[in-house]
């Protein structure tokens, strides 16, 4: 059992006040806050161990190298992978770009990449770059209940895509996709399967070996770690068969004026000076989450999601986007106060002299909640196609994590009632 009030004490930033009110941070899907242990681990590295790793044969460099590789092993254990399968990158976005570039080099005109309608831009745009070489992109449909249409998935697999890349948990509607069911279906048609774990690895138990996917990508800054560090987890045979993404530094084995050969995995994907401090901070974050227990993390968020679901009826004209069943939803609460039509729909309605419903724009909701000391996200959440699919211009999104409490949910709904009254005047 997680005590969010007790955990708040581990996060220095949560003691801040805004507009005279204690901070209620509800934007962890964008980035999480950092516990003191993570902050201290980074300071300790820079104060006591800072040196470039792998290339030095003096004690300080050897200490840095040991810390860097220990962090890789710790992160690997956290997601049930081999340490050699952990490639450090800056974030999920860079990881997906790495995969699109390296795997995309083997794709040909007419090959298909299969995504879903609920993907983040980071799992769409890198694949769209491949259209220049004639690669097709197809999207599995989302049903009206915000779950993935598995019949459509099965149908689109008949196109025999070379790559299937899917978010495990949507950053907008919170849907937790049935990855364990999807992976073997993709493998039956010899497709490589990529899991975008940006919103799942921080919030629930995720086992790379258990999912049997080919690649798993996630960011450290969404799981209590620092910004600028993330991971591509890949099966060894897949990583060995791939070309590197960036050149220079530690990714080489031998270089001449006209050729180069590559280092072993994972190092052939880690060009230049590595983010050693970031890896150490991520390892400290893993320790913190492991101490809490990822099953407990998930149960705590379910408590907050259920409380949110119970309270939604209190707000007149609140429109919620996500599965009704909290059991298949991550810790995000996307909503609008009244109708906020998609830009094209709103324009068409106005041109036909039809009344456009008067909703409160998500940016106004977020700005008003900020005056109550509550931090939420508003906009398209890097998922503009999904916004269009839902016929809205944007949503307000509250997202929970281990340091949130039922009282935080209560403060959110009290403030939302105030927002409603404010804009009704």
Could you characterize the architecture of this molecule?
Helix content is 38%, strand content 16%. α2 (36-48) packs antiparallel against α10 (276-292), α3 runs parallel beside α10 (276-292) and α11 (294-311) packs parallel to α15 (406-424). β5 (112-116), α5 and β6 (136-140) form a beta-alpha-beta unit. The protein has two domains: 4-29 and 293-424, Aspartate Aminotransferase, domain 1 (Alpha-Beta Complex), CATH 3.90.1150; 38-290, Aspartate Aminotransferase, domain 2. The longest helix is centred in the N-terminal third of the chain and has 20 residues, at 59-78. It is globular, with a radius of gyration of 23 Å. The protein has 425 residues and is α/β, with parallel strands linked by helices.
CATH topology of the largest domain: Aspartate Aminotransferase, domain 2
Oligomer: single chain
SSE-based structural type? alpha/beta
Strand content: 15-25%
Provide the gyration radius in Å.
23 Å
Shape: globular
What spatial order of strands do you see in the largest sheet? 4-10-9-8-7-5-6
- What's the count of strands? 17
Number of domains: 2
Number of helices: 15
Top CATH class of the largest domain = Alpha Beta
CATH superfamily of the largest domain: Type I PLP-dependent aspartate aminotransferase-like (Major domain)
Give the biggest sheet: 7 strands, mixed
N-to-C span: 43 Å
Task: Give the helix level as a range of percent.
Answer: 25-40%
């Amino acid at each position: 059992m997680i005590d969010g009030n007790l955990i708040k004490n581990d996060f220095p930033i949560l003691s801040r006040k805004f507009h005279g009110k204690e901070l209620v941070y509800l934007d962890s899907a964008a980035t999480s806050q950092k516990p003191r242990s993570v902050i201290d681990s980074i300071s300790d590295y820079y104060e006591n161990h800072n040196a470039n790793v792998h290339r030095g044969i003096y004690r300080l460099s050897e200490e840095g190298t040991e810390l860097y590789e220990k962090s890789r092993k710790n992160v690997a254990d956290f997601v049930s992978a081999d340490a050699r399968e952990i490639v450090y990158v800056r974030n999920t976005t860079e990881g997906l770009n790495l995969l699109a570039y390296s795997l995309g080099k083997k794709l040909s005109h007419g090959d298909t990449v299969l995504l879903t309608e609920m993907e983040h831009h980071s799992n769409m745009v890198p694949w769209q770059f491949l259209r220049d070489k004639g690669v097709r992109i197809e999207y599995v449909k989302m049903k009206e209940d915000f779950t993935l249409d598995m019949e459509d998935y099965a149908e689109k697999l008949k196109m025999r895509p070379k790559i299937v890349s899917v978010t495990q948990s949507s950053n907008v509607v919170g849907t937790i996709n049935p990855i364990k069911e999807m992976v073997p279906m993709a493998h039956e048609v010899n497709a490589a399967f990529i899991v975008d774990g940006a919103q799942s690895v921080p919030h629930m138990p995720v086992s790379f070996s258990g999912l049997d996917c080919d690649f798993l990508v996630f960011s450290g800054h969404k799981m209590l770690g620092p910004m600028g560090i993330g991971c591509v987890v890949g099966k060894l045979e897949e990583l060995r068969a791939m070309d590197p993404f960036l050149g220079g530094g530690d990714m080489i084995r031998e270089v001449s004026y006209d050729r180069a050969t590559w280092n072993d995995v994972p190092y052939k994907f880690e060009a230049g000076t590595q983010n050693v401090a970031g890896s150490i901070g991520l390892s400290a974050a893993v320790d913190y989450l492991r101490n809490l227990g990822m099953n407990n993390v998930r149960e705590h968020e379910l408590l907050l999601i259920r409380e949110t679901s119970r309270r939604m009826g209190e707000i007149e004209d609140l429109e919620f986007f996500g599965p009704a069943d909290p059991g298949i939803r991550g810790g995000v609460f996307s909503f609008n106060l009244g109708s906020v039509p998609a830009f094209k729909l709103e324009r068409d309605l106005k041109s036909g002299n039809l009344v456009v419903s008067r909703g409160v724009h998500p940016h106004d909701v977020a700005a008003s909640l900020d005056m109550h000391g509550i931090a939420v996200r508003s906009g398209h959440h890097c998922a503009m196609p999904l916004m269009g699919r839902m016929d809205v211009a944007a949503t307000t999104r509250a997202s929970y994590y281990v340091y949130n409490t039922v009282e935080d949910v209560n403060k959110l709904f009290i403030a939302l009632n105030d927002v409603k009254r404010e804009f009704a005047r």
